[in-house]
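Write out this protein's structure.
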Amino acid sequence: MPVTIRRSYRDVLRRQVIAELTGIGDIYLALVSDQWGTALTLRRRYEDCMRLLDDLGWRETDPGEEFAITMDPVPLMRVLARLHERAGEALELHLEEAMGGQEIVDATVALAICGDVLVGLADDHVHDAMLAYREARCSRVDSAEGPS
C-alpha cells in the first residue's frame, strides 16, 4: 500500500534527495580506483534516490498537493535511513558551529539514534503506535504552519 505525503513534506524530502544525488560522481571515482564493492553500494544508493524522485516528481513545480510513494519498502527504508542520517549530521554540525552547546548536540544525536532504533523496530507490533505518532506530529506541524 503506497504512503501518501503532502506537498510541504514532499518539497523538503525532494530537496534532500537532490542533495544526496550530488555525490553520484563518487561511483566513477570508486570504479577508477578498483573499489567495485563501493561502486555497487553507491549505485544502489543513488538508484534508490532516483526511484524516490520518480514518486516525488522530478520537477520542482509539480502541481500535486499529495504524492504517493509507491516504491518497494526495502529500498524506501534504505533511502529514508540515509536521508535521516544525513539530516542528523547536518543539524549536528550546524548546532556545533552556531551554539557549541554539548546539550544541544547530545539532543540532536539522541534524535538521530531514536529514529534509527525506531526504524529497526518498525514491524506490525509498533505499526499502530507509529501511525498515532505520525498523526500527532502532523497536527503539531499543521498548527505551527498556521492557516493556509
